[in-house]
Amino acid sequence: MAAVQLKTVKFGGSSLADAAQFRKVKAIIESDPGRCFVVPSAPGKRHSKDVKVTDMLYQCQQLAAEGKDFSQTLAQIRERYMEIANTLSVSFDPTAALEKIEADLKAGASKDYAASRGEYLNGMLLSEYLGFPFVDAAEVVCFTEAGVFRMDDTMQKMRARLKGLERAVVPGFYGATDDGRIITFSRGGSDVTGSLVARATRSDIYENWTDVSGVLVADPRIVPDAAVINTVTYEELRELSYMGATVLHEDAIFPVRAAGIPINIRNTNEPEAPGTFIVADDSAESDVETGYTITGIAGKKGFCAINIQKAMMNAELGFCRKVLTVLEDNGISFEHMPSGIDTMTLILPEDAIRGKEKTVLSGIRKAVSPDRCEIEHGISLLAVVGRGMRRTRGTAARIFAALAHARINIKMIDQGSSELNIIIGLLDGDFEEAVRRIYEIFITGASVTVDED
Ligand code: ADP
Ligand code: ASP
Ligand code: MG
After folding, report:
1. Residue nearest to atom 2 of ligand 2 (CA)
2. What span, in angstroms and rounded, lies between the C-alpha atoms of 360 and 377?
């Protein structure tokens, strides 16, 4: 008989949004004796217009900070947990914990503290429902005073605390400083906790259970029937998640990757589907053909471009450095820097330059006296990612033909040296159509001819 594989299983917000979802989660855990360490998110949306508990908690903190009444929102949060507990006949009652949260918020508790309570309460509820011990993430996930995550201390504390426990529920998303101040990862951070627990327990596999049957070739909100990717390498997924494939938090990859633990993305609502395996680039699994040249398409809106033009720019020693120093002095990092003989463009997130536009533009003018220097808003970046591109010629040509055919103007092209991805800059208004066209040409096999006009 094959040995039982030890598994860490993380369930996202929609997988734990109500009692019916809790039942599915329990059935999944009980169907495999290896599913021993469980990391839950806070209850998510039950339907598209619903509000996540995490967002309600942020709202409470905001109202508390403004000195406003937040009792109604807090009552709605209580209702959500009570509905789950009552339906499942679990004796868990969040009332006392919520009274403490209310008092803490009135006394000025932080955003991170507020948000973390969603996972904390859900973890307690789930632990009682499953009959697994509860381990508070504040005891085992370590941050510095400045809010920086500490890997070594986390591994040490988590291993010591979980040692001897055959099963446990560890809530996702947060940890604490040495003196107990709660800090969260960024949004979607329960994925990171899952990865840490998998590593600390030396699990054979990290299962990440969500509401889609794996990583899809494109965002299902743009391409509704997008195909599932069977195997994706850590590198590919990092590119995809960095560029907006929000199915897995980008920081969830490092902890398990270093330990050689594969990730399996699964669907709580379709547990029999195999989902997506995320594996090392040099593993046998990564040799499995994806069937297509590209593995996935992802992208993000919300960028801007600083276009700089100056005759003979390329002959001017230190030009780039001077421009980049202006960004550095303003605490801004950029994403891409395509350049020509007399032109240079910096692509950066709108958020990074908001409120600093005038200072940055005048700084650049002063530093390099350009002929022109202007900022262009409303840029999207789209990444076409695939390990198969390394051995296939003509991928870029196919992408550009598809976009030209749709009369989509490309503002920037960047191919990473790894030949794993091609990044394209385009206008926000063209973004969704570009994703659909690239999907069609590589996945559904539409052929494209370029109009000559
Ligand atoms: P969870 O709450 O389980 O952590 P998330 O909402 O964080 O789930 O992530 C799953 C969602 O990610 C999907 O419902 C889907 O809308 C979105 N998504 C975006 N891009 C992709 C993609 N390429 N593949 C799968 N899902 C994607
Ligand atoms: N509940 C948190 C969020 O909504 C963390 C998570 O779901 O992973 O971002
Ligand atoms: Mg998530």
Report:
1. 188
2. 15
With a 6 A CB cut-off, is 188 part of the ligand 2 pocket?
Answer: yes
* Cβ of 220 less than 6 Å from ligand 1: yes
Task: Report how far ligand 1's centroid is from the alpha carbon of 210 (Å).
Answer: 7
Span 323-367, pLDDT tens digits: 999 999 999 999 889 888 889 999 999 999 999 999 999 999 999
Strand arrangement of the beta sheet that strand 7-11 belongs to: 168-169, 35-40, 7-11, 205-210, 263-267, 276-279, 231-233
Residues 214 and 276: their CA atoms lie apart, in Å, by: 5
Q: What is the pLDDT of residues 63-122, one digit of tens each?
A: 999 999 999 999 999 999 999 999 999 999 999 999 999 999 999 999 999 999 999 999
Classify burial at 315, counting beta carbons within 10 Å of its beta carbon; exposed 0-12, middle 13-18, buried 19 or more.
exposed
- Ligand 2 atom at minimal distance to the Cα of residue 189: 8
**Of 444, 449, 450, residue with least CA distance to 297:** 444
Ligand 1 midpoint to CA 133 (Å): 29
The pLDDT of residue 289 is: 59
Q: Which atom of ligand 2 is nearest to the CA of 52?
A: 4
Could you say which ligand is closest to the alpha carbon of residue 40?
Answer: 2
Beta sheet of 372-385, edge-to-edge order: 343-349, 296-309, 372-385, 421-427, 410-415
